[in-house]
Every structure is written in C-alpha cells, then in structure tokens.
Amino acid sequence: MSRRDQILMTPDEMAAFLDVGRDLQVASINADGTPHLVTMWYVRDGEDLCFWTYAKSQKVVNVRRDARVTVLVATGDVYEELRGVSVNGTATVVDDLKAVLAFGEQVYEKYWGPIDNDLVREGVRTMGAKRVVIRVAPVKITSWDHSKLAGIY
Q1: Among 5, 79, 81, 120, which residue's beta carbon has the most beta carbons within 10 A?
Q2: Which residues lie across from 37 on neighbouring strands?
Q3: Of 39, 108, 110, 37, whose CA–CA distance to 73 is shortest?
Q4: Domain ranges of the chain
Q5: Nearest to residue 25, comparing CAs of 55, 61, 69, 65?
Q6: How far apart are CA 100 and CA 62, in angstroms?
Q7: Residue 91 and residue 69: Cα distance in Å, rounded?
Q8: Percent of the chain, pLDDT > 70?
Q9: Rounded to 5 degrees, what are φ and ψ at 27?
C-alpha cells in the first residue's frame, strides 16, 4: 500500500474531522487570475462546506465571475499530527434572506453554542442582513491523516 493510501481519511473520518474543524481556508480567483485567500468560519452540510460573508466582499465578486474554488481545513502542530481535507469545488452564492439568516444561526451555534435568547437571535439577524452564504460543492476531495503512519516515516 502506498504512503498516500495509508493516510487517506474514510468518508466518515472526513465528516467527523470537518464537523469539529474551526477555520476554513477559502481560495477564489481574482479577475487577474491571482488567488484570493481568506479564512472563514464554516458549517458542513452533507458533502458541501458553507460559509457566510458580506455580499459585496471580494470572494463573492470572484465566485459570481468564476465559481471554481478550493477550500481547506487542516490541523496539526508537528508532522505526525497533520490532518486535513482539501476540496476543489464549485461555489454557489445563496442570497435568499431566510436561508442566510437560518445559516447564520447554524454558524453562531457551532462557534458560540445554543442561541438562548432573543437578543442574540436579533444580533445574528442584524449581521445576516448584509450577508450571503457561499456553498461549496465538491468536485475533488483530498484528505490526509499522518497519525495513521504511527510515527513510521
């Protein structure tokens, strides 16, 4: 078995890894062809990775022009702990306000916990008023988990 095959995550391992991941590196393509790279908070929805952002942000401008993106979630401080999932995908902008606000609540709950009062819910709605959701549908997924090498390189 190749080393590459040894470190692949199973679909269940990828889902579990992505569910607890915090930072999504998002690369879109600027008009001049250079990459635009930012870090976003995200939520997994099935195989799709979703994040919200201001409707007029550069990444939204970019994906409206060219839907190709690459996103990455990675962890690890030393080689034998490196784990990650990279997704080459197609981005779709969701600008339906009801869907955006519902997504905002999902993001809030993932990163801060349950929405337990109306003041917090209203704050999420205020933030969502100027935002859209970007949904990344995978075209190609690459994963790695160096801990599967058990310290043997």
Answers
A1: 120
A2: 27
A3: 39
A4: 3-149
A5: 69
A6: 19
A7: 7
A8: 97
A9: -115, 120
In the sheet that holds 83-94, the strands lie side by side as 35-40, 24-29, 68-75, 83-94, 131-145, 48-54, 43-45
In this predicted structure, the answer to whether residue 152 has a pLDDT above a threshold of 90 is no
Classify domain 3-149 by CATH number: 2.30.110.10
d(CA 67, CA 102): 23
Average model confidence (pLDDT) across the chain = 94
The answer to whether 74 and 60 have CB atoms below 8 angstroms apart is: no
- Among positive and negative, which fits the CA dihedral 91, 33, 38, 98? negative
State pTM to two decimals: 0.92
With vertex at residue 111, the alpha carbon angle to CA 74 and CA 82, rounded to the nearest 5 degrees, is 15
Residue 15 sits at the vertex; the CA angle it makes with 141 and 51, to the nearest 5 degrees, is: 75
Backbone angles phi, psi at 20, to 5 degrees: -100, -5
